[in-house]
Write a structure and sequence with these properties.
By secondary structure, the protein is an alpha+beta fold. The protein has 2 helices and 17 strands.
Length: 270
């Protein structure tokens, strides 16, 4: 006798349930793989990360760790610079902070030999970017740190060799440094485009003053006809002359505003 198998209702239900379960597990696994593949594209960029990592900081000295590359930027007719912000190769230039009424981290004082007729010793320079061409008056804030006579230990050499003009002026009188093929020249030390720049008076502490021409004080002016980067040079002359800061300013900006300005020029690098 031949036997025929006839599945009952419960067997059919179990088979259908297993089929649905297997299909569901397979579908879930497939969906999970798809999500994993899409994750990298779905990642949200960290908003703290800059779009361009090489964009410079707003800090004016960011990246300017080489003082020899400093450029001091004129703005609205003013350049104001801490004198210690330069590369002083000669060790006779000392940064000190024992005097009163200085700004910044200190001031520089020449402690070496006198160079009364020999400019260029202990020379350093400041790069200045002029954005608004014109005629600028020059002043520096200096002090006498040796003795009690305001006519000694009171001067340093100064030169603007690539400016369009560099001269001393008192009223209608104008004088030029020797070595620039211009006359008249001042009484007193001058050579190779350098002026002796002195301060006077027996108030020996730091004050804003810069003059040339012995016994006939002329103020100092520099002319820049075009925007650009110019070089201001200084070199040692009198032992004990200390310099804290300097300014260049237009007549429109004003002398008092220049001396009183609390903000110094922005520093960028070449």
């Amino acid at each position: 006798m031949k036997l025929t198998y006839a599945p009952n209702e419960h067997s059919l239900l179990r088979t259908l349930f297993l089929f649905v379960l297997i299909f569901s597990l397979t579908s879930c696994a497939s969906d999970k793989d798809d999500v994993m593949e899409e994750d990298p594209e779905m990642a949200v960029e960290d908003p703290a990360e800059p779009d361009n990592p090489e964009t410079p900081s707003e800090d004016p000295q960011a990246g300017c760790d080489d003082v020899s590359k400093y450029i001091f930027n004129e703005k609205d007719g003013l350049v104001k610079v801490e004198f210690e912000n330069a590369l002083f190769i000669k060790e006779e230039w000392k940064q000190e902070a024992s005097e009163q009424n200085f700004s910044g981290e200190g001031y520089m004082v020449w402690t070496g030999d006198e160079n009364l007729g020999n400019p260029g010793v202990g020379a350093t320079s400041f790069k200045i970017k002029i954005n608004n061409p014109g005629t600028y008056q020059f002043l520096w804030k200096s002090a006498v740190t040796i003795g009690s006579n305001g006519t000694e230990h009171n001067d340093t050499w100064l030169r603007f060799d690539d400016a369009d003009d560099f001269y001393g002026k008192k009223g209608e009188s104008i004088v030029y440094p020797k070595g620039r093929n211009k006359t008249p020249n001042p009484e007193g030390a001058t050579k190779d485009g350098w002026f002796k720049i002195y301060r006077s008076g027996n108030d020996l502490g730091f004050k804003w003053q810069a003059r040339t021409f012995d016994n006939n004080a002329h103020d100092i002016f520099v002319e820049f006809k075009e925007p650009g980067v110019y070089t201001m040079e200084i070199s040692a002359r009198s032992k004990g002359h200390a310099i804290d800061a300097f300014v260049l300013f237009t007549e429109a900006f004003g002398k008092n505003n220049a001396m009183d300005a609390e903000t110094f020029s922005e520093i960028t690098c070449n």
